[in-house]
Amino acid sequence: MTLRELKIGKTAVILSVGGSGALRQHLLDMGLIQGAEVTVVKYAPMGDPIELKIHGYELTIRLEDAGKIEVKEIQASAKKKKRNIEKTIHPGYGEGGKYHERRHEKPLPDSEILTFALVGNQNSGKTTLFNQLTGASQHVGNFPGVTVDRKDGVIKGYKNTLITDLPGIYSMSPYSREEILTREFLLKEKPKGIINIVDATNMERNLYLTMQLMELNMPMVLALNMMDELLENDGSVRVNEMEAFLGVPVVPISASKGEGIEELVKHAIHVAKYQECPTEIDFCDDTDSAIHRGLHTVMHLIDDHAREAGIPIRFVASKIMEGDGRILRQLKLSRNEKETLEHIAVQTEEETKMDRASAIADMRFSFINKVCEATVVKPQESKERIRSKKMDRILTGKYTGIPAFIGIMGLAFWLTFNVIGAALQSLLEAGITWLTALADSVMTAARVNEAVHSLVIDGVFSGVGGVLSFLPIIVTLFFFLSLLEDSGYIARVAFIMDKLLRKLGLSGRSIVPLLIGFGCTVPGVMASRTLPSERDRKMTILLTPFMSCTAKLPIYAFFTEAFFPEHAAIVMIGLYVFGIVIGILLALIFKGTMFKGEPVPFVMELPNYRMPGAKNVSQLLWEKAKDFLQRAFTIIFIATIVIWFLQSFDLSLNLVADSKDSILAVIAGVVAPVFTPLGFGDWRISTSLVIGFLAKESVVSTLAVLFGSTEALLGTLTTAGAAALLIFCLLYTPCVAAVASVKRELGGKWACAVVLGQCVIAWVAAFVVYSVVLMILI
Ligand code: GDP
Ligand code: MG
Q1: Tens of pLDDT along 683-717?
Q2: Which of 36, 197, 446, 759 has the fewest CB atoms inside 10 Å of its own CB, making it the most exposed?
Q3: Pocket residues for ligand 1 (CB within 6 Å)?
């Protein structure tokens, strides 16, 4: 039978895993290997994907992929007796020098900066640890060539260090962009040490990556995180024995509570300084095994090539055995050598009775089992696990999952736009008004030049101030999104929504970028990099701009208040829904035309629900606020000054009495006719739309500067025109920053396509809306 036919609650042992290529490798890397026991936990509310329990963690895969996995049903193995391991005392720094082989005893010179890479699974606590280690000294940038956030920071209290937070990955296979990136970073930039963070409550899953990191033969320490949770639930780890097995320092820590950090840092600095590599990298278990012979034969054969290419030999060997073409190409082997390698692999397959990739995955998992059996006392069922199960009964339940999702998102948006964000906003607005009045009276008293006065009050204060008042809403929305993400709920959303999104040609994971897109398109587009399939990634990026971002809110707020005061809420919600509907239509068109392609497996871990850390959340909010403020005081500041200038002077640079005669009016007059059929052909409106390309927030500030008063605007626009304008603002080209991020992700051609495509869509949609509203009103 296949895994697909297994009933809920039943357990089976895996006989074989079908499929091929990188996608199959991913299934193996996630632990779906021959001989593993798997239990079906539940189906998603829409009946697909399914949730499985394997190696003690929860995974979700699609029914279609489950159909490729042959299993045999068994009785669930009796619960292992709880062994009592007395809590060992960790001897601390250097383990008496036992695992720190100081063969050379030649430390790196003090002038050398000790660079570290922080590597670990997703949700293992990387961000928390990184924030603990670096405090405020973080630098956020990009990895060259790809838009993946790169965070660097100096370890607190150690000046000559630099730690880089790498994206969370499960394996070093070239499956997702993250995995390739991490691998290239480690191989090319060669940090002085690796800090591998491991979730101690989920050891099997996490050590799988550790095995591959150790094969790199670079100085490394293992940070066993979440020890607080493990200990609290009567689990424990024999840290010293684990060190003996692995041959690297193992330091128990709790990143969120800040325990063990100091010791971890000392170890990390020590191994990096003395360049102490793992003493153990031969995981092929007993030396008689076929896989051992196979791997070592490969190692002998490619020794010189690996050295020449500068890639650790053991790592190369197991990657070749896995069938990793990327590494193979870097080695520049002769045809003869390639053929020999193929023969070795086939021989190993025959002897192990498994295909090569499974044989390697099996080797790793058996070594991990051995380590865990000897050193880890698993908590029977942790409080967190039980709590997660209870929460999931509702949050991913058959009948409750989808209503809960809608409820939670609705609540988050309602709190943001109606309660918390709105209250903070009116507070800030009051402050800005007060400040404006103050500046106005001071300048009047000081008899400041009229032009300067107008620049400050009509330009800067009304422009920048108008935008600034949206800071609270943006920060509040990001606050809720980061709570949902950090707590582990977003992974559930992907699980629930997968089937629906697949109908649109996307996968459940696309929900993350799309949801973030409601906050801001830029991080939304960036979040799409976690999607393993190129096709999903492209489609998600192209659809994200249709999720109305917070920067467009000022526009909606301004117009609904002026034109539809009685129906403000409905119009607002309507706009959001309209954007989503257009996105869905577009997705269906994409699916039927450009992006036909194969669906990819949806293999995802469902982490336990956890309380989000206050530090992480506040760090993120600070980053977002800073980013927004920077924009407000750079792009928008400059834009308002430029507009003020263009509308205050005419072509011969005289101050104009009426902005009709200004330079701006001349320029905008050229664009305006395009918008006449949409009911907003006024030059001031077309100006604000053009300026809106810089930053959507500045549409309103530009209108404020140009019209001076809402009455003036009401005089130039009809209700139908206002509706059309709102639709146009919703759909037309995303701002420069968003287009730039699309360009970085997909290249210039796609970025241009986004700009032009969305303008056309916006124009057509606005035209339709204009005509319809006119008809209704007549
Ligand atoms: P990342 O995905 O690897 O960056 O993981 P995060 O740093 O975002 O952490 C994932 C979740 O685990 C967050 O909700 C953290 O608050 C939580 N967490 C991190 N470290 C610890 C820890 O030592 N103990 C406990 N109980 N929770 C932790
Ligand atoms: Mg993180």
Answers
A1: 889 888 988 887 788 888 888 888 878 888 888 88
A2: 446
A3: 120, 122-128, 168, 225-226, 228-229, 254-256, 486, 610, 612-613, 616
Average pLDDT over residues 745-766: 94
Please tell me the residue having the least CA distance from ligand 1 atom 24.
226
Nearest-atom index, ligand 1, CA of 121: 3
Averaged confidence pLDDT in the chain: 85
The bound ligand whose nearest atom lies closest to the alpha carbon of 124 is: 1
Ligand nearest to the CA of 126: 1
**pLDDT value of position 508:** 85
Work out the average pLDDT over 275-285. 79
Residue 647 in this model has a pLDDT that exceeds 80: no
Q: Terminus-to-terminus CA distance in the chain, angstroms?
A: 66
Which amino acid, 569?
Answer: A
List C-alpha distances in Å: 312 to 208, 246, 326, 391. 18, 17, 15, 45
Q: Taking the alpha carbons of 603, 609, 614, 618 in that order, is the dihedral positive or negative?
A: positive
d(CA 504, CA 592): 10
The residue whose CA has the least distance to atom 12 of ligand 1 is: 125
pLDDT at 506 over 50: yes
Pocket-testing residue among 610, 615, 617, 619, ligand 1, by greatest number of atoms within 8 A of Cβ:
610
pLDDT at 601 over 70: no
CA of 614 to the centre of ligand 2 (A): 13
Comparing 598 with 697, the larger pLDDT belongs to 697
Tell me whether strands 193-199 and 220-225 are parallel, antiparallel or unpaired: parallel
* One-character DSSP codes across 732-777: S---HHHHHHHHHHH-HHHHHHHHHHHHHHHHHHHHHHHHHHHHHH
Could you tell me if 78 and 254 are in contact, meaning their C-beta atoms sit under 8 angstroms apart? no
Cα dist. 252→132, 197, 223, 262, 695 in Å? 15, 10, 6, 11, 47
Read off the tokens for 55: 């190696």
